[in-house]
Amino acid sequence: MTAKEILAKLVSFDVLSKQNNLSIANWISDYINQYGVETVYVYNEEKTQASLHCRIGPAVDGGIILSGHTDVVPVKGQPWNTNPFELIEKEGNLYGRGACDMKGYIACFLSVLPQMVKANLSVPIYFAISYDEEIGCLRAPELAEHIKSYYTEKPKYAIIGEPSMMQPIVGQKGILYVETKVNGSQGHSSRIEKEVSAIHESTRLILWLENKMKELSQQNRNESFLPPHSTMHVGQIKGGIATNVVAGNTTFQWDVRSIPEDSIMDIVNDYQEYCNELQKEKRKLFPEFKIENTLLHPPVPGLQTSEEASIVKLIAEVTGNTKPSYVAYATEAGQFAEAGFESIICGPGSIEQAHRANEFVSIEQLNLGVQMIENIIKKISL
């Protein structure tokens, strides 16, 4: 099957994060198995979701992991012009949810599998396919660790194929989502000085996050990133029942995206310290005032691969792209790097198309993705 044909099949699986993904996992596994390659499942506790990995080539150190995720973001509420779960070709582009983020990359390496099994590889190639990436890169750590423990040999490189227009990306910011719940008192709005409004106190917390971001922008900067400092952003907020009722409850969710020079947990701990101080102060007026913070996923580490690393040189040789870049979005690359693999981001399509209506990957980019993997095979073949 061609990459385009495989991508059409992968796009047809409307599997979002948190959903049972065995339909797409089984299809990928069956496709790989037909070429005599054994796939290994890494299930969740309920066995309703699974990551996959496999090895092609000899069991020797120094192999290359090709990594992607199967889950996609929702389409509800987006103004799609076509069925998002049917691959549509138009004017050189392939439209569909996940076409660039990141089923296109998976389609690339699956399409080249027949060449891999026929080649006399000097080191192995591994496929590592995860799920629940879009909600906090939840499964990459266990997938990377499973690969390390399952095989007797140790892979050297990991190429995470997030859409980068086939440019090598050596740095990404870390990320964490946090939910803050504020419990205040309820009462008539005319008594605002006697009550503790959850909304008013939430604004103090949000202002603290904004001021903290400004403080960090002065303390630590890394001009490789845009913006060149750690950021905090509140994306959702809910609270209150009526204009003339002091709000008893508020919930807001925010994220922190950290440059390598900053620690995500240091930022979160500073925020918690401020929450504790505010809580102590407001309980003098309303003893049941409470601020609860919940980490919505484990902190996702950033990526900081040296521009002189051998993986950068490898990507330059197989793509022709020699200038490493840095991005503010998060991927599983930092997690593979933490597991001990020299990691880089490089894949077909543009991040500008990810998560939006009418997402697409160009046929040209898809072909370049295939070409990169074919060049890898040539480079490591005896």
TrEMBL record:
It is an enzyme of class 3 (hydrolase). InterPro entries: AcOrn-deacetyl, ArgE/DapE_CS, Bact_exopeptidase_dim_dom, Peptidase_M20, Peptidase_M20_dimer, Peptidase_M20A. Keywords: Amino-acid biosynthesis, Arginine biosynthesis, Cobalt, Cytoplasm, Hydrolase, Metal-binding, Zinc. Residues 170-281 form the Peptidase M20 dimerisation domain. Its cofactor is Zn(2+). One of its GO terms (biological process) is L-arginine biosynthetic process. SUPFAM superfamilies: Bacterial exopeptidase dimerisation domain, Zn-dependent exopeptidases. The keyword Translocase does not apply. The keyword Metal-binding applies. Its EC number is 3.5.1.16. GO terms for molecular function: acetylornithine deacetylase activity; metal ion binding. It holds the Pfam family Peptidase_M20. It comes from the Bacteria. NCBIfam families: AcOrn-deacetyl, PRK07522.1. Belongs to the peptidase M20A family. ArgE subfamily. This is Acetylornithine deacetylase. It comes from Tenacibaculum aiptasiae. The gene is argE.
